[in-house]
Automatic annotation (TrEMBL):
It comes from the Eukaryota. This is Reverse transcriptase. It comes from Lithospermum erythrorhizon (Purple gromwell).
C-alpha cells in the first residue's frame, strides 16, 4: 500500500489535530506512507446538515478504518447497486445544492435583519451643531481631563447619505468631509 495517496476523513479535526491524524494513519498503514496521507476535513455545517464532500461528489466517503476493519458497509458491498446509488445521488445533487443555497440565503437575510434592528442611523440637517473626535496630540495621548470631542461645528452641506461638510462657528470651512459615525450631536 505504499506510494499511493490515502484520504483520511477526519470529523472535527482543526489545525494541528489534522496533521497528527495524518501521521497516525501513515504509521498504521506502513512505513513511508506518512508523507502521502491526505487529511480531508469533512465537517457538516449545523444549519445545512450537509458536509462539503457530499455537496461536491454527491455521496459520503468511506473511511480507511472501515476498509481495514471489515465493517458491514464493506462486507455487503455490491458494485452494481453502488453504481446505481451513485448515479441517483448525482442526479439529486443539484437539488441538494439548491436547498443549501436557499438555506444560506435565508440565514444571511435573517442575520442582516437582526443586525439592522440594532443599528441606529445618525442623520443631521444643514445647520445642526455637532462634535467631532479630537485628534491625538503630538505626544500621542489626550490629557486626562481633556474631552475626547472637539467642537462645536455647524453642518454646512450634506455630501452623501451619511457624509457631511463642517464649518467652524466663525464661518471657516473644515478641510475634509466627515462621516456620521464620527460625529455626535451637540445640544445647546
Amino acid at each position: 500500500m505504499t506510494g499511493g495517496v490515502f484520504a483520511v476523513i477526519s470529523h472535527g479535526c482543526p489545525g494541528a489535530r489534522c496533521k497528527e491524524t495524518a501521521r497516525t494513519a501513515g504509521r498504521y498503514l506502513g512505513s513511508g506512507t506518512s508523507d502521502s496521507v491526505v487529511v480531508v476535513p469533512n465537517n457538516p455545517k449545523s444549519d445545512q446538515r450537509r458536509n462539503p464532500f457530499s455537496l461536491v461528489y454527491g455521496s459520503n466517503t468511506l473511511l480507511l478504518v472501515e476498509i481495514q476493519a471489515d465493517t458491514a458497509r464493506v462486507t455487503y458491498y455490491d458494485e452494481l447497486a453502488n453504481e446505481q446509488c451513485l448515479r441517483l445521488n448525482l442526479d439529486l445533487l443539484v437539488g441538494k445544492r439548491a436547498i443549501v443555497v436557499d438555506t444560506m440565503a435565508k440565514y444571511k437575510k435573517k442575520e442582516a435583519a437582526d443586525y439592522n434592528k440594532m443599528v441606529r442611523s445618525r442623520q443631521f440637517l444643514v445647520g445642526d451643531l455637532v462634535l467631532r473626535p479630537r485628534q491625538t496630540s503630538a505626544h500621542g495621548k489626550l490629557g486626562k481631563l481633556e474631552s475626547p470631542w472637539k467642537g462645536p461645528y455647524i453642518i454646512q452641506r450634506i455630501v452623501g447619505p451619511v457624509t457631511y461638510e463642517l464649518e467652524i462657528l466663525e464661518g471657516r470651512q473644515v478641510p475634509s468631509s466627515w462621516n456620521a459615525c464620527h460625529l455626535r450631536k451637540y445640544y445647546v
